[in-house]
Write a structure and sequence with these properties.
131 residues, 7-stranded antiparallel β-sheet
Length: 131
């Protein structure tokens, strides 16, 4: 991979798919995708992130985001929530989603999750921060 950021739907999905392929080719433990911080949505918190590894997406969500994630999963019937973890000291839930699919479908899910779950606009900027 030679590029690590994108801000249009087509380019983000290509970037995410390329990251999945690179992750698989390298046999790395996981890859991390991040959306740009939006102070109107995130406040003081950093922008959202999504990790993928071992055929599993890993995300942190609030209760409202979890509801939106469950709605989004209806568009991806081959994906399913495997684990929900809500430690007492954390605000929100860590979600693990099994996702056995090709790189393009995985990329499409990640892009839609940033928009549908985390409220990002169509032109949000995203980075691949770890492969």
């Amino acid at each position: 991979m030679t590029r690590f950021e994108a801000d249009s739907p087509r380019e983000r999905r290509k970037l995410f798919a390329d990251a999945v392929v690179a992750h698989r080719n390298r046999g790395s433990a996981f890859l991390t995708l991040e959306a740009a911080h939006d102070p109107d949505i995130d406040g003081e918190d950093p922008g959202p992130w999504i990790q993928f590894g071992d055929r599993t997406f890993n995300m942190d969500v609030t209760d409202e985001e979890l509801d939106r994630l469950k709605d989004l999963l209806s568009e991806f019937p081959e994906f399913r929530i495997d684990q929900l973890e809500s430690p007492d000291e954390a605000e929100g839930t860590n979600v693990r989603i099994s996702a056995r699919s090709d790189a393009n479908r995985l990329a499409g899910f990640a892009d839609r999750a940033f928009q549908a779950v985390y409220g990002r606009a169509d032109d949000y900027r995203a980075w691949v921060t770890a492969i």
